[in-house]
Write a structure and sequence with these properties.
Elements lengths: L1 H15 L17 E2 L5 E2 L9 E3 L8 E4 L7 H6 L3 E9 L11 E4 L6 H10 L1 E3 L1 E3 L2 E13 L4
Length: 149
């Protein structure tokens, strides 16, 4: 039973890493490129509206242009607790994080979460671009809480 559990776990890990792929006959057919009425073929990564793109597919990745002073929670400062919070956010075409998209993916202490989300919400980013056009993009922002000694 233990060996079966180990094999199942290994298969799940390999699948998550993209190592275990279904045979070509089991894969869904790839979608053909989109066509517009003028007859030109559109590549599947071309922005068409209000789509949210993954950071890996954009031509120009978003970058922080400015941000507010990071607020270190007093209780965590007094306790000497440090760490990194990973905040997921959708950055819009104006370079702002969409407030409803903010999500904590990783945190060493829940006391850091609101401060980290507030920083991302108030920061200004250079928008992501595809073919020169600003697009919405899903990113992960690491926020470091370090005490200077």
């Amino acid at each position: 039973m233990r060996g079966l559990l180990l094999v199942a776990t290994l298969v799940v890990v390999l699948a998550a890493l993209g190592v275990a792929r279904p045979a070509a006959s089991q894969r869904p057919p790839s979608r053909p490129p989109k066509h517009d009425p003028s007859g030109s073929t559109q590549d599947p990564v071309t922005p068409t509206g209000n789509d949210v793109f993954m950071e890996a597919v954009v031509d120009e990745k978003p970058a922080v242009l400015s941000g507010p002073q990071l607020v270190y929670p007093d209780l965590l400062r007094q306790a000497g607790i440090e760490g990194r919070v990973i905040v997921q956010a959708v950055i819009d075409t104006m370079g702002r994080a969409e407030a409803r998209s903010l999500k904590i993916l990783e945190s060493p202490n829940p006391g850091f979460d609101e401060s980290a989300k507030g920083w991302v919400r108030r920061a200004l980013f250079r928008p992501a671009r595809i073919h020169g056009r600003a697009v919405r993009v899903l990113i992960q922002v690491p926020i470091e809480f370090r005490l200077h000694r």
